[in-house]
């Protein structure tokens, strides 16, 4: 294949990727402000706020974040994802689209469960402090 044809093919691939990225961005913006309510058997009382913007970090690399917010303490867990070509990076680990998604989902689920469990344990002390301030009996 001649050099000109190869460059043309590469440009077409780049254009296709940009179109796909722009389509994802439009979809994300259409869902902007979506907050997912979370509840479990333990009544987690948490929400998930997904940043509607995909941040472009370079050619073929995107970043997006979400926050799991525990309402009673207002503490949050940041879920930060970077996608590069066919790989998702989460907490320093790589997960391939083809096979890693099945591994990534339980990892995220575990992180969220651990966060909520810790927040539920901290919530009674936090609420007692707030009640004490409201009653004028706390420092």
Summarize the structure.
Helix content is 45%, strand content 29%. With 139 residues, it is α+β, with helices and mostly antiparallel strands.
Task: Tell me what the structure shows.
- The protein is of the alpha+beta class and 139 residues long.
- It has two domains: 1-30; 32-135, no CATH class.
- The chain is built from two helices and seven strands, in the order αβββββββα.
- It has helices at 3-30, 101-135, and strands spanning 35-38, 46-50, 55-58, 61-70, 76-84, 87-90, 93-96.
- Strands 1, 2, 3, 4, 5, 6 and 7 form a seven-stranded antiparallel sheet that branches.
- It is elongated, with a radius of gyration of 21 Å.
- The N and C termini lie far apart (77 Å).
- The model is unreliable at 32-43 and 128-133 (pLDDT under 50).
Principal-axes geometry comes out as elongated
Contiguous low-pLDDT stretches (5 residues minimum) are 32-43, 128-133
The biggest beta sheet reads: 7 strands, antiparallel
Helix content: 40-55%
How many strand segments?
7
- Rg, please? 21 Å
Compressed to H and E, one letter per element, the order equals HEEEEEEEH
- Residue fraction in strands: 25-35%
**Structural class, judged by helices and strands?**
alpha+beta
**How many domains make up the 3D coordinates?**
2
Mean pLDDT: 76
How many angstroms does the end-to-end distance come to?
77 Å
Helical run tally: 2
